[in-house]
Amino acid sequence: MPPPSSNPKVKTHALGDSALLAELGTRLDTALNTRAIALAAALKKRRDVRQAVAGYASVTVHFDPDQITHDALATAIKRLASKRPPIAEPGRLHRIPVSYDGPDMEAVAAQLNLKPKQIVEIHTRPIYRVFLVGFVPGWAYLGPLPEELELPRRHVPRTQVPAGSVAIAGRQTGIYPLPSPGGWHLIGHTPVKLFLPDSDPPCLFRAGDRVKFFAS
Amino acid sequence: MSERLRVRKPGLFTTIQDLGRPNAIMAGVPPSGAMDRFAHRAANVLAGNDEGAATLECTLNGPELVALGSCLVAITGADFDPRVNGQPVDMWEGMFLHEGDELTFAGRRSGARTYIAVGGGIAGDRWLGSVSTYMLAARGGMHGRQLMAGDVIAIAGPPVGPPSRPAISGRRLSRHLVPEYSNHTLQAIVGPHIRRLGAAGRRELFGSPFKVSKDADRMGYRLEGPGLDASGEELLSFGLAAGAIQVPRSGQPILLMADHQTAGGYPVVATVAGAAMPVAAQLLPGDELTFAEVSTEGALRMRKAQRAALDSLTS
After folding, report:
1. pLDDT score at A8
2. Do residue A63 and residue A98 come from a single domain?
3. Could you give the CA distance from residue B163 to residue A118 in angstroms, rounded to a whole number?
4. Residues A113 and A193 in one domain
5. Residues of A in contact with B271 (CB under 8 A)
6. Domain for residue A101, yes or no?
7. In a designed cystine with B43, which of B115, B154, B281, B313 is the match (CB 3.0 to 4.6 A)?
8. Better-scored residue on pLDDT, A155 or A210
9. Is A5 within the bounds of a domain?
10. Residue B162: what pLDDT?
């Protein structure tokens, strides 16, 4: 059983006149992320809330300032956050095939003092959590990445990273859904499409989903 | 759908935009939509449309359009010196074009983006609830791309609102209600990470001039100015909003615009008030701007004033 949820200290900050950021914490933590996703879901049911998006440990709430003030919404958020969140359903599990032949594999191996084979073994070991979907269409922040693979971002970001690149940085891993600039280390690629422009929602992963990589 | 205008020249960068797809942020898709929403809404009302109908957003210069049938149009936003059959015409009012009439623009006089609304609302590909063009995904509007010569602009339906078109064509926005685009002061509300700047940094943010760099598009503007230091513990990524002023490690702030990334981990020191975003939308690389601190209440008063200006068109 999870420990009884204490009242997390929620801090709210204005993000302009019709949005606010509710921070539940500052740590990369699955429990905090679960709470954030539950809080976002609860807030979305409100008529005065236009959209609520969970971050790692926060919720960004877009609201209608004609219907509620920032202060009244902040109070409502604190009340909602103090409630015990419903038991989270385990997210859908995605199995993602990866060719571990990324252009940074050798450099990553050298920096971590590991063999590429060990990197594959460590990267495919966990079931990662989708902490949040955002940044660019279909991008999902996955983690936590095992400590053995922790590296700072590349010093000089690439101007163009191919779609499908599987990458790591810090305690996170992810897949580039579209060709875009990027500063993460590319260790492999997958043919799986993450951005699905003709589906609704137009992305494969949703916050709270689980992802398992396997070498193909 | 009926065809109303043929595109003889598309202009530098002309896209179909409406009020965007706010719910798509869940999938990392930017909200998009018109950059200058006041001009967009006003153009629509002047053309007898719902405020959310699609318009043409024309950047830096205007297109050349030929009317294929009679239609009511309205031009708002940046002043690119609009002409009908070569004769100067007024902005911020509805006017009829007849078959064969040519709508052209003689050249930019001020601002960055002009809006053209057509009675009935411009038709386009709908994607995730909006016809706004999002070029990165090649979706929405004119097949996910900017206009090209030879394109035909159709309208989505009959004009919405009062049925008598002549009554609508008389609408115009009083000059004093047009946004003061030449005043580049952007009112902004302090953001989640304002404390990282310290007292001195906060004075720099609200008071020093910043210049819009050449790296400025529908996603956002990189600004050049006094270096701001918002360093501190790495932040976990969180959801963003248009108008947010991010301070990356370089210290040169980024102002997020309509096609902004939906999440990020840079500190947000302030957010431009919604009612000041039309002015931001009309800035060009090289333009100077200043941020002025405003309370949430102050920002909402500005919002109400803009709402009243739009309502004055139909009252």
Report:
1. 64
2. no
3. 72
4. yes
5. 14-16, 19
6. yes
7. B115
8. A210
9. no
10. 42
What's the confidence (pLDDT) of residue A45?
A: 95
What is the per-residue pLDDT across B227-236, written as a single tens digit (0 to 9) for each? 999 999 889 9
Polymer length of chain B: 315
Q: Kindly state whether residue A46 falls inside one of the protein's structural domains.
A: yes
Rounded-to-integer distance, Cα B305 and Cα A56, Å = 37
Separation in Å, CA of B141 to nearest CA in chain A? 14
Residues A78-91, mean pLDDT to the nearest whole number: 83
Sketch the domain layout of chain B as residue ranges.
Answer: 2-177, 185-311
Q: Which residue of A has its CA nearest to B293?
A: A16
A211 and A121, same structural domain?
A: yes
Strand ordering across the sheet containing A11-14: A11-14, A19-23, A58-63, A49-54
Which residues in chain B land under pLDDT 70?
1, 159-170
Torsion of CA B158, B161, B167, B169, to 10 degrees: -60
Q: Per residue in A21-36, is it b (16+ CB within 10 Å) or e — as a string?
A: bbbbbeebbebbbbbb
Same domain flag for A100 and A183: yes
**Alpha-carbon Rg for chain A in angstroms:** 19
- pLDDT for B133: 98
Subunit contact B240:A136, Cβ cutoff 8 A: no
Question: Do A207 and A141 share a structural domain?
Answer: yes
Q: Is the pLDDT of residue A39 over 70?
A: yes
Question: Residue B189 in contact with residue B241, Cβ under 8 Å?
Answer: no
Q: Kindly state whether B232 is in contact with chain A, defined as any CB-CB distance less than 8 angstroms.
A: no
CATH topology of domain B185-311: Cyclophilin (2.40.100)
* Residues A51 and A152 reside in one and the same domain: no
CATH code of the domain containing A179: 2.40.100.10
Q: Is the pLDDT of residue A57 over 80?
A: yes
Report the domain count for chain A.
Answer: 2
Q: Are residues A104 and A211 in the same domain?
A: yes
ipTM above 0.90, yes or no: yes
The answer to whether A210 contacts chain B (CB < 8 Å) is no
What is the span of the domain harbouring residue A138?
93-215
Cβ-contact B194, B200 below 8 angstroms? no
DSSP string for residues in A36-90: HHHHHHHHHTSTTEEEEEE-SSEEEEEE-TTT--HHHHHHHHHHHHHSPPPPPPP
- Residue whose token pair is 């969140």: A85
Same domain, yes or no: A130 and A204:
yes
How would DSSP label each residue in B195-234?
GGGHHHHHHHHTTS-EEEEEEESSSEEEEESS------SP
Which tokens is B154 given? 């159709």
Test the A interface: residue of B26, B250, B259 with most A CBs within 10 Å: B26
Q: Which helix (H) or strand (E) holds B110?
A: strand B110-118
Of A82, A117, A135, the last residue of a domain is A82
pLDDT (0 to 100) of residue B46:
94
Our measurement of the distance from residue A185's CA atom to the centroid of its chain's CA atoms, rounded to an integer in Å, reads 17
Residue A2 forms part of a structural domain: no
Q: Say which residue, A173 or B160, is predicted with more confidence.
A: A173
